[in-house]
């Protein structure tokens, strides 16, 4: 029995065509199921970074340096804990906020007594589903980052956000070796530390 064999060149061309079709189909599937970019809302508030950190220190319950252990999912402070339907209107109401809880492992204490090994505080904004609310001048925190943070405690009549955690930052810096990255500019870590230590001794 005679069997007709395809020339090698034609056989290879068919295999390349098949492989290319599979790759294109795979790319099309990946494109169709890719995660869309979240809708970004930027909140423009008053961002400050004073030259003299003593007033911020005086307002703070804790001034600590530590490592970000967890950045927990953002939470709405609405009664049902869901995104408000009238989003833009709700964002002008201080009782309706998206807050991101952050847990840090404390390494150095500059102010505070009986400071727990870990502290939980919340930042305004965050990522929730297809929505991201970002506040102007606030560096985004991730696990493993080292930060120097000035934490205050919410007043007795604070809004619903305080139920997540009563601690919130007056100011924080991301520690990068000898540099502290602040909301407005970078400063020398040694200079800030010496002032904090001097204030703690007085």
Describe the protein's architecture and organization:
By secondary structure, the protein is of the alpha+beta class. The chain has two domains: 8-36; 39-201, OB fold (Dihydrolipoamide Acetyltransferase, E2P). It is built from four helices and eleven strands. The chain has helices spanning 8-32, 54-59, 87-90, 189-201, and strands at residues 39-43, 62-71, 75-76, 98-111, 118-124, 126-128, 131-135, 146-153, 167-176, 179-181, 186-188. Strands 2, 3, 4, 5, 8, 9, 10 and 11 form an eight-stranded antiparallel β-sheet that branches. A hairpin with a 6-residue loop joins strand 4 (98-111) and strand 5. The termini are far apart. The relative contact order is 0.18. The model has no long low-confidence stretch (mean pLDDT 84).
Topology summary:
Elements: H1 8-32, E1 39-43, H2 54-59, E2 62-71, E3 75-76, H3 87-90, E4 98-111, E5 118-124, E6 126-128, E7 131-135, E8 146-153, E9 167-176, E10 179-181, E11 186-188, H4 189-201
